[in-house]
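=== RUN LOG ===
request id: a7f3
mode: sequence -> structure
chains: 1
length: 287
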Amino acid sequence: ATPLEAAIHATATYVKSGVLNRDSEVAIIDAVLREDPKVLVLAKYYAENMPLRFIEHALRTLGLSPLRMREGDEHVDAIVVGGGLAGLTAALTVLDRGGRVVLIEKESFIGGNSQWASSGINGVIKTSFDQNADSEEAYTDDCEKSSYGNGNGAADLDPETVEHIPTLTSRAGQTIEWLRRRVGADLSLLSQLGGHSYARTYRPTEGMAGSSLVFSLKGKCEEYADSGRFKVVKKARVSDIITDADGHVAGVRWVPSDGTKGGGEINSRNVLLATGGYSNDRHGDDA
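=== RESULT ===
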């Protein structure tokens, strides 16, 4: 998208969410369409990947009042349900792009089952050592073999059993590099564990891999807390997904997970469920 298109899209997003009022909408759109140089520079560097930051900077540049949330109405760019590795990773990704995130966790602590993972993360990184014979194809083959389960073989597998394997094997190495670079995770030990044809399991030098990663990711997310862009609601269970008149997702309702009275409503067009993965599906055909 061009900066002009990205700016209009960002403006429309916050108009639809009810955060941007009519006067501010008109002022930003007018500035964009008349190609105000200051606003277009902001659009070039912020509008596409950090739309909220673009709106905030544009309002200030145009001398308008900053965004104000409606009283009693908490609106964020994304709601992440579940505080394990998947949820924390999703939250940090949105935060790094300028968004505001509320993370909802039903337990009294962050980490979920991820913090108990002890072995490490599997991935193919060809540069880990000289003459590394491992490959994404070999990793894929190992994953498919382990999916055979009862020995029926690949021909009897349901498609959903293996359809995500190529995504896993082709991107796992990138994920490990990101955890090292962005999160500062210690994944310096490399081992060959059961079921793997090559050494491709990365783990920390001390402690369990899961708890180490949770600690590092949680710390990076909390760096955004002072600015008000990251908030955690613990001991809370999401009871409903809110939808608007057109059936679009508009937020969530939550209740205390300990059975006490209370709860609340959080509004967002983006709700990400990171509540246990495929193993937590107790209602599907494969449950």
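=== NOTES ===
DSSP finds nine helices and eleven strands in the chain.
Residues 69-73 have pLDDT under 50 and may be disordered.
=== END ===
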